[in-house]
Amino acid sequence: MQKIATVLIATSLIVLPSLVLAKPLEANTLENGKQNYQRLCLSCHGELGHGDGIAGQALSEQPSNIYQGLNSWFESEAELIDTVLNGNEEMPAWGNLLNEQQVKEIFTYIEYVNKD
């Protein structure tokens, strides 16, 4: 019984501080992601990242659904990051304005706003 109590105390000393410290980081991550998303992505990809933005309607190809891409078995996060940073035939490259961490923050924001 004493061993179990010792393990529980040791575990809580490791886990609880990390949970407390993670909250402010998540808030910063979400805010940074939101700001960059609204500045660079919203007009084409829409409010929730579903590819239904106003500017996207004028394009010959509908912008991709970012949220669906993040939850797809067919595309890895690394492939999506590469597309954002380097662009493709349908999307401009944002690597001159964003780094990999900022793209991940945008993805975190998209996941967050699509939670039920």
TrEMBL record:
SUPFAM superfamilies the record matches: Cytochrome c
InterPro entries: Cyt_c-like_dom, Cyt_c-like_dom_sf
Domain of life: Bacteria
Domain spans labelled Cytochrome c: 28-114
Signal peptide as annotated in the record: 1-22
Keywords: Heme, Iron, Metal-binding, Signal
Gene Ontology molecular-function annotations: electron transfer activity; heme binding; metal ion binding
Short name of one Pfam family: Cytochrome_CBB3
Keyword Heme: yes
Name this polypeptide is given: Cytochrome c
Species whose genome carries this gene: Vibrio marinisediminis
